[in-house]
Amino acid sequence: MSLETEVTYHYLEPRPHPWRRILWIAGRNMHVWHLVATMLREGETPEETARNFGLPVEAVCEALDYYRRNRALVDAETAEEGRRLHARGQL
C-alpha cells in the first residue's frame, strides 16, 4: 500500500500552457527542467546555482525535489519539446 503525501512547494508554481504540465520557478520565465539541467550541465551545487540565478537556495532544492519526484513527466515533456523544435527546424 502506498501512502504518498502531497508536497507543497513555495518557490514552484503551475502555469497555464497548451501541453506542458511541469512546474515553473515562481516569478521567472523558467520551468524546473531549465534550472535543473543548467545545474547538472555546469556541475554546480544548489548554492552555486542559487547564486548564479539570484534565487534562494530553497528554490533550487525544491526544483531538485520536484524533478526527483516527477522525473518521468519532466523527461517526457523535455522530449516533446525537442520533437516540436525539431519539427519546426529549430533543432
Fold and architecture overview:
- By secondary structure, the protein is mainly alpha-helical.
- The protein has one domain: Orthogonal Bundle (Arc Repressor Mutant, subunit A).
- The protein has helices at 32-42, 46-53, 57-69, 71-87; strands at 12-13, 24-25.
- A two-stranded antiparallel sheet has the order 1-2.
- Helix 1 (32-42) crosses helix 3 and helix 2 crosses helix 3 (57-69).
- The longest helix has 17 residues, at 71-87.
- The chain starts with 11 loop residues before the first strand and ends with a helix.
- 21% of the residues are buried.
- The model has no long low-confidence stretch (mean pLDDT 93).
Reconstruct the topology from this structure.
Blueprint lengths: L11 E2 L10 E2 L6 H11 L3 H8 L3 H13 L1 H17 L4
Antiparallel strand pairs: 1-2
Short description:
With 91 residues, the chain is mostly helical. It contains 4 helices and 2 strands; from the N terminus they run ββαααα.
Highest-level CATH class = Mainly Alpha
Q: Looking across the biggest beta sheet, what order are the strands in?
A: 1-2
What proportion of the residues is helical, as a percent range? 40-55%
Major sheet: 2 strands, antiparallel
Q: Architecture, CATH level 2?
A: Orthogonal Bundle
